[in-house]
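in:
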């Protein structure tokens, strides 16, 4: 095989393997946050109620109500948050689009100055900025990336964030309730299943981060377990007081 063919093969292999994960928070952040929040909040809610020495039926109803309320709340919150963020970005893009239309030369010089600040020779930076500024939409995209740090073609979707958050929260919140629905009569099966779920979720998150799976799993297990223990203790105290 010739050198040119070898370099072409290496370039193609690099192109195919050089991919990045979702870091814009379109679905990953609300899904992860939703699952963790569903597990921790519903486990803590159920253990707190159970600490007050209430009936099994009350614990199950509390868990199901916490699942429904939390899932809808998370979805609404994520939709509003992401929609507001997207609207803010679109407003800034409109400002930048207006500036490109009214002051194209100034914007071109601004882009050239950005490249110079990054080490490009002034003459070359100005030539590059001039070439890129010929297409208004391309110029807008480049200015958005350089000045705002965003990609206009890759804005997070409010609907995707809401659905991801809703489904993940409901799935996480279901774990503490599931043993009761399958016939358990005590709190411990629900606690054990929820703690296993917390560790598994933490370990799964490590797949898309730089942390080791055991560290991420143990961290989430410790946080969720602490929350459940504290609320159980509060439930015992309140139950004894009333």
């Amino acid at each position: 095989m010739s050198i040119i063919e070898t370099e072409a093969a290496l370039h193609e292999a690099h192109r195919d393997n050089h991919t990045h994960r979702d870091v814009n928070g379109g679905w990953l952040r609300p899904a992860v946050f939703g699952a963790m929040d569903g597990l921790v909040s519903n486990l803590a809610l159920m253990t707190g109620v159970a600490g007050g020495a209430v009936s099994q039926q009350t614990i199950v109803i509390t868990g199901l109500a916490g699942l429904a309320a939390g899932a809808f709340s998370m979805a609404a919150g994520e939709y509003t948050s992401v929609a507001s963020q997207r609207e803010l970005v679109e407003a800034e893009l409109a400002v930048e689009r207006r500036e490109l239309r009214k002051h194209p030369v100034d914007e071109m010089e601004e882009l050239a100055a950005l490249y110079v600040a990054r080490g490009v020779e002034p003459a070359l930076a100005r030539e590059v900025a001039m070439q890129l500024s010929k297409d208004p939409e391309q110029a807008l995209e480049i200015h958005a990336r350089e000045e705002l740090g965003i990609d206009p073609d890759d804005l997070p979707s409010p609907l995707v964030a809401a659905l991801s958050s809703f489904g993940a929260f409901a799935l996480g919140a279901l774990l503490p309730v599931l043993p009761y629905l399958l016939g358990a009569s005590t709190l411990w099966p629900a606690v054990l299943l929820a703690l296993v779920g917390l560790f598994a979720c933490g370990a799964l998150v490590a797949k898309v981060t730089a942390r080791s799976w055991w560290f991420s799993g143990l961290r989430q297990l410790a946080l969720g377990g602490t929350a459940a223990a504290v609320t159980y203790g509060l439930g015992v105290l309140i139950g004894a007081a009333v």
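note: The chain is about 80% helix and 0% strand.
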